[in-house]
Amino acid sequence: MVRASAGRGRPTLDSVAARAGVSRATVSRVVNGMPVTPTSAESVRRAVEELGYVPNHAARTLVTQRTDLIALVLPETTTRVFSDDQFFPGVIQGVSQQLELADKQLVLMLAGSEASHARIERSVAAHHVDGVMLASLHGADPLPAALTRIGIPVVCNERSLGPTSPPCVGVDNVGGAATAVRHLLDIGRTRIATIAGPQDMIGGIDRLTGYRDALRDSARRSIVAVGDFTLGSGATAMQQLLEDDPRLDAVFVASDLMADGALQALRKAGRRVPDDVAVIGFDDIALAQYTDPPLTTIRQPILEIGRQMARQLLRLVRGEEIEQTMTLPTELVVRQSA
Amino acid sequence: MVRASAGRGRPTLDSVAARAGVSRATVSRVVNGMPVTPTSAESVRRAVEELGYVPNHAARTLVTQRTDLIALVLPETTTRVFSDDQFFPGVIQGVSQQLELADKQLVLMLAGSEASHARIERSVAAHHVDGVMLASLHGADPLPAALTRIGIPVVCNERSLGPTSPPCVGVDNVGGAATAVRHLLDIGRTRIATIAGPQDMIGGIDRLTGYRDALRDSARRSIVAVGDFTLGSGATAMQQLLEDDPRLDAVFVASDLMADGALQALRKAGRRVPDDVAVIGFDDIALAQYTDPPLTTIRQPILEIGRQMARQLLRLVRGEEIEQTMTLPTELVVRQSA
DNA sequence: AGTCTCGTTAAGAGCGCTCTCAGCCGTAGG
DNA sequence: CCTACGGCTGAGAGCGCTCTTAACGAGACT
Known about the structure:
In chain A, the strands form two sheets. A six-stranded parallel β-sheet of chain A has the order 2-1-3-4-5-11, with helices on both faces. In chain A, 43% of the residues lie in helices and 17% in strands. Chain A has twelve helices and twelve strands. Strand 2 (105-111) of chain A pairs antiparallel with strand 2 of chain B, so a sheet runs across the interface. The first copy, chain A, binds a DNA duplex through residues 8, 12-14, 22-26, 28-29, 32, 35-37, 40, 55-56, 58-65.
């Protein structure tokens, strides 16, 4: 561990070979774990140690055509603000954990402007990364098609609304929403409203479907309001619901952030939660534990989404076959709001 | 734009040269914007277009020794949970914006375990990235020293508590805290307490210092409680303060998340905010707009921290000199809690 | 003892790019 | 008309690695 200095002075395979008294090829074999005689293996290992040799990544990539780099593309502008609901941080963390196991590095690309779209395409075309994960892009996004055309492994979260649909990892939004509503039925609620999410996003659409499914044969449904997954929109929607159906006694809200808004609106309107109105959210973000009262919600396994996206993509990169879609379970978390 | 297909079939400099009827060197010059005769420039450009040529990144890196990759290292486990206070997402976003302008890619490394530390060092030693940004690492972290030894440009956020101190970009925690307290004095509060952050983190230490500074010559100070930047700890600390000094009429809380906890504790204790007790937070996270009542706080320019870290690092990578420390201003945001 | 086989190693050819260096041509000056 | 000089261009070396190919030595068999 003497040198390892910057720039051109770094030890190469050749210098290690010279020091160990073997050929470059033998050193390469040792470094890559291929079989060699114990004698030379030992002397190579010692030389590597003494020189502080670390393989040059670019040189290796040039010949193997592998970069060991995996890209995660996140949209920068959307109703789902980058950090608000902790979805992206969670996904990043899950992805990162899984990539670490495979000794791959994570390249994060935030796709905001047109320019950054072009930049991502260029980067992928240059074979700068081995595979790409796409999270939460809008239906009309041309990126999946473009990347598929380039011929690089791609995995999405949530099934795409667009024409080209890469393999994807999603959660059981319909089932989760239905579970939430059934819980409200179980505790005896009779007029159940919902605050849905935007109807151009999978999460928004499917959670509303789940609500409808669970109440299909029931007379206990109330009305539907639509928000955009932000806290403010949840508060507004709740006010609206209270005006339009003052007798409602439960609300299923399609996101925790909106549910917090709803809670505030209910408090302002003088309704007690859960006594007068039961509220149930979706996502189980950290905030849900700390709302007043703590929020009953449907947990979405965010970390697991990231992990599974990475796993699926790594399989694809290795040339294995994978299922077109993978759906992760959601889970009811009972706290005090319902 | 016909080919650009995967694998070995991609067009190279040579194929472009052949098609354009010039040498490889000339194509390289055009691609890199060096002067050539308009005639050959034009035919090269056409050949590039027709073949869909994109330079191979690894090959370029191999000879130039530049990777155009910049690493951002974030600690994965800490009291500051990865996503809670939106600090990391904000920094990521700022960094990303700035790197995009310089056409660099962002490699995200979450440093949790010992193993990941080793992996980061190895990756950097392999000259896999041109520079490294370190965010919020603990005082005793060996990473800054290790990276400096390798001889790679490094920039931190917040000055390091450890022995080796790379250049860093921080915010004016002391000044911000003092401003907050002065605001409380201005609105006539007479018993001002504080909930401080952990005293092994810069933010925790400096914000407490600012509180003390502003009250140095005043008789209007109350007591100090310490939290760990989490919402729960804020609530607990607030209860404690109320027990120990029931007559306090203001609290400066060292983070918005803790402030939200404090708000809830005050509500439970039957105190009105701001009438009975004024509360002021620090950070101005998104949540601050939606607490009940909306939180007066000190805004920390999170995006700007990211941007400036990236700018400083890019300067270093280009071989320019930079200031050892850069301090960004904080700003009082008056809402309704104080 | 000679031949064949097998496992191991050394040599060398690239991967696709940049960059130096010499060669070329055209113009200006002697 | 010949030499000097300047700008472009092309040839070629080499970045550090992997992987194929061929050589080599040791052991088994005829």
